[in-house]
Write a structure and sequence with these properties.
The structure is a single chain. By secondary structure, the protein is α+β, with helices and mostly antiparallel strands. It has a domain of 48 residues. The protein has two helices and eight strands, in the order ββαβββββαβ. The strands form three sheets. Strands 3, 6, 7 and 8 form a four-stranded mixed sheet that branches. Strands 1-2 form a two-stranded antiparallel sheet. Strands 4-5 form a two-stranded antiparallel ribbon. A hairpin with a 2-residue loop joins strand 4 and strand 5. The protein is globular. This is Asp23/Gls24 family envelope stress response protein.
Length: 126
């Protein structure tokens, strides 16, 4: 490769001053959050060059966050966790939290590194 070859840098993920990728990382790091949630068409989403970030919408006054919460965590606690995580990233915007789904409490933990999904057989009578 020649010295004149350029390395393509990812496009900035900043919308109205808000770093959307940093917001997504902060939300996903909340203990009560399973993941951002895509939901139905028309739900919160941010269009960036070459990709979409579903579950987040930035406008001049509000940062809207839609998540799938972990089972057993009270909704109020999930919202407090998210708002606390975004207190500096939201840039004085109101943070609206939508809990659109709950993670399945019976779903087995996936070992993504091995690429295999554990199989669980129910002992319930049919």
């Amino acid at each position: 490769m020649s010295s004149s070859a350029r390395i393509r840098q990812p496009a900035a993920a900043v919308v109205d001053g808000v770093d959307v990728d940093a917001v997504a990382v902060a939300v996903r790091a909340c203990p009560g959050v399973d993941d951002l949630y895509r939901g139905r068409p028309g739900g919160p989403a941010t269009c960036l060059p070459g990709r979409w970030v579903y579950g987040l919408r930035v406008d001049p006054h509000v940062l809207e966050v839609q998540v799938r919460a972990r089972w057993g965590v009270p909704a109020v606690e999930v919202a407090v966790q998210i708002r606390h995580a975004l207190r500096t990233l939201a840039l004085a915007r109101r943070v609206d939290v939508i809990i659109a789904d709950l993670a399945d409490p019976a779903a087995p933990e996936l070992d993504h590194s091995a690429g295999k999904v554990p199989i669980t057989v129910s002992g319930q009578d049919q």
